[in-house]
Structure formats: structure tokens, C-alpha cells
Amino acid sequence: MNKSDMLNQNQDKPSFPSAIRVVIIEDQKEIREGLRRILDESPGYSCLATYETMELAIRGIGSMMDSTGEIPSVILIDLGLPGMSGTEGIRRLKGDYPELLFIVLSVFMDDKRIFDALCAGATGYLLKKTPPTEILTSIREVVEGGAPMSPEVARRVVDIFKHWRPPQQDEYNLTPHEQRVLKLLVDGHIYKTAAVELKVTVHAVSFHVRNIYEKLQVHSKTEAVAKAIKLNLV
Question: Which of 38, 55, 101, 125 is the most buried (most CB within 10 A)?
Fold first, then answer.
């Protein structure tokens, strides 16, 4: 067979997309191993690793990405883990590796856990009673840009945002000058540089900051900046 024939033969072979690489973080061995089996026996999927605690997962995923450069496509994660919670783990890993995609797989469906997990960086949220075929479909959906949720969870999310209204600036009665001072604090200014920026005295900035603390019900610059960012006050 000449080189041309070999090339033509290779072109005739069907090409398969690379498998979706999944990491499982689950403390219950039966569930963890069951998920591993489902993934490894399903075409187009592979289980890179499993971990029973968040602490082990953080070390393992960090080592995996640093040594092999192999990035997991999706991380299936439980929330009720021993030690560090799944929500805090999502926040930690998402901070270090923003490209990671997380699907929560949990028995919990209360508003706070759902809201906290999504705010931490989870892209999907499934209940553990979800059938294996739907879990596989959801994993692929996340990779393709979707945000899969169990129907019960989706309804809770809709209800959360139906009744949630972000606080407005005028609810704290901040004056325009106090808003400018607060914006400078968020931008990293100290009293002296804020005073230069606003062309006022340091004493004047200090006066406005005390009023800001009182209105926001905080006791430090750090708390004021965190609250301003969280509530989008500036």
C-alpha cells in the first residue's frame, strides 16, 4: 500500500470526539463508585478521578492540572461533604481555575444551598435521584454551554429571583458625595488619596466615611467595600 492509499484509508475512518472528562467529589462510596462506573461504561465519557472530601479534591485537581495540564471537562460535586463544604470548594476551585465547570449533585433543594452554590460558581444543579441517563445528558449540556437543573430546583430558582430585589442606593440614603467617597474606597484609595481626588481635606473624607459606616451598618473599610460590591452600591 502506497502513502496515498494509506492517507485515503485514514480519511475514510470515522472520527470520534474526545471523551468528556469528569471528576467526581462525593463522600458516599456507593454513589461515587456507581457514578464512576456509569461514566466509564458510557461512550464519550471518562472519569478522570474521584474524591471523597473537598480537601483531597483541591489537592488532586491542582496536581492533575499542574503536572499533566489535563483540565477536567466537568466536576460533579456533592454539597454535604465532611470538612470543607462543596459550596466552599466550588468557590475555591473556581477562583484558582475559572475554566472549570461544576454540576452540583445533591439531596438538598432549599433556597439557601441552591442560591449559595450558584453564586459560588456552579453551572448546574441536579438532585441525586436524577436518572443516570439524565446525568450524562446534563454533563454534555454543561460542556455545550447549558445550565441543567432538576425541575424542582429550577422552580426554586425562579421563586428565589421572583421575590429577590437588590437593594438600591437610596435605601441607604447615601448622599452623592458619600457615594463618590465609597467608590474611591472600593477603587483602593486611602483617606489621603481620596481627599486629593475630591479636592477636600482628609478630615472631610473621614467625616463622610463615618456617615457611610453608620448608614451601611458596618465597622471598617473592608466591610464597607465588601458590602458596596455585593449590593452594587457604586
Answer: 125
Who contacts 35 (Cβ-Cβ below 8 Å, separation ≥6)?
A: 24, 26, 47, 50, 76, 105, 135
Whichever domain contains 186, its CATH number is 1.10.10.10
Q: Which amino acid is at 189?
A: H
Domain with 130 in it: 17-162
Residue 7 lies in a domain: no
Q: How large is the average pLDDT for residues 36-47?
A: 96
Domain count along the chain: 2
Dist CA 66 CA 63 (whole Å):
5
- The pTM of this model reads 0.65
The pLDDT of residue 164 is 62
Question: Which residue type sits at 177?
Answer: H
* SS3 sequence of 122-162: CCEEEECCCCHHHHHHHHHHHHCCCCCECHHHHHHHHHHHH
Give kind and range of the element (H or E) at residue 190.
Answer: none
